[in-house]
């Protein structure tokens, strides 16, 4: 059921970000398994993308993870408080990544509720990248972990959304990326309450 490692080597990060909708993201922490259906993503197109941490070939301790071969986790701290989980894609030294912005709780819902201190019936439990990561217990210790391993992985459960049920909009909170801020590289499942705002098309 785990995605084939080759899946992540796709060099078209935009297509991959869309295809990840409906896939199921799992974590196993202290023998406790939690999982959620991916319902919102954003694509970051490596060195050519002004919104990407790796724009212009920037290499720092933080961004080095992005330059690895696709199929590993890239987790960074945003605003000094939120851990954000990204799927590194494409081949080595081509630093593409997909930010997971929202998940619909599926497995270990009681654990997810405990981590977020709210009922799973509230969309806010896992809408938005910081909330999604927290719901699944993802912190920076997951950075560089293999997505085909035993601690964090993605499965294909055959959940597919029709083209008309998927929205493609500009990414969120990247005004600094100038004209690249307008690219429709954020994808989400229309009408799903676990999608972050703005959740209208």
From TrEMBL:
Name the keywords, alphabetized. Answer: DNA damage, DNA repair, Hydrolase
Q: What is its EC number?
A: 3.2.2.-
Q: Sorted alphabetically, which InterPro entries does this protein's record hold?
A: Formyl_transferase-like_C_sf, MPG, MPG_sf
One Pfam family named in its UniProt record: Pur_DNA_glyco
Read off the Gene3D superfamilies from this record: Methylpurine-DNA glycosylase (MPG)
Q: Report the domain of life of the source organism.
A: Bacteria
Q: Which PANTHER family match?
A: DNA-3-METHYLADENINE GLYCOSYLASE
Family per record = Belongs to the DNA glycosylase MPG family.
> What is the protein name given in its UniProt record?
Putative 3-methyladenine DNA glycosylase
Q: What is the lineage of its organism?
A: Bacteria, Pseudomonadati, Bacteroidota, Sphingobacteriia, Sphingobacteriales
